[in-house]
Design a protein that fits this description.
162 residues; four-stranded antiparallel sheet; 30% strand
């Protein structure tokens, strides 16, 4: 029986490369001189942008978004925290890179698939959703529908088996 998996993955090496490029650009740009703007990245998938004021943090986030987009990292995978100001005048923002499909999004994907009325089964497996059916055309219709749907996370269709 043909099947495929729906996943939401981000290449963390590409994120790291994009952040390195953003750091280099921020160091060279005139509007960031003397602002002590920093972009920190940890292995958990969180980046922290800190700067002199909120305006500079927003500008640094725009630089990061541009570099991520150029490297092929989907911006839908970013979860932006609130822009925080400290009494000392510094501002920071935490941005998380989402990996995998959470339970609520998985249920939403299953609901969309069942709403198509095709003879396919959807199964939630940890951080992915497996779709299986007897006809390859039905599976391709599911892929086409999910590509057109805006679920708020980037989706990849992998592990296609015939």
């Amino acid at each position: 029986m043909p099947s495929f998996d729906i996943v939401s993955r981000v290449d963390l090496q590409e994120v790291d490369n994009a952040l390195n490029q953003a750091r280099k650009e921020i160091v060279q740009r005139y509007d960031f001189k003397g602002t002590n703007t920093q972009i920190e990245w940890d292995a958990k998938g969180e980046m922290v942008v800190t700067s002199k004021d909120e305006y500079r943090v927003k500008a640094a986030v725009e630089v990061v978004q541009g570099k991520l987009a150029r490297r092929g990292v989907p911006l839908k995978a970013l979860d932006y925290g609130p822009l925080e100001s400290s009494p000392s005048g510094r501002a920071r923002q935490v941005i998380r890179v989402q990996q995998g499909i959470d339970a609520d999004k998985a249920r939403e994907i299953v609901k969309v698939v069942k709403g198509l009325g095709l003879k396919v089964q959807a199964q939630v497996l940890e951080a992915q959703v497996r779709i299986s059916g007897k006809k390859r055309d039905d599976l391709q219709a599911v892929i086409a529908r999910l590509r057109g749907e805006d679920l708020g996370i980037p989706l990849q269709f992998v592990n296609y088996r015939d």
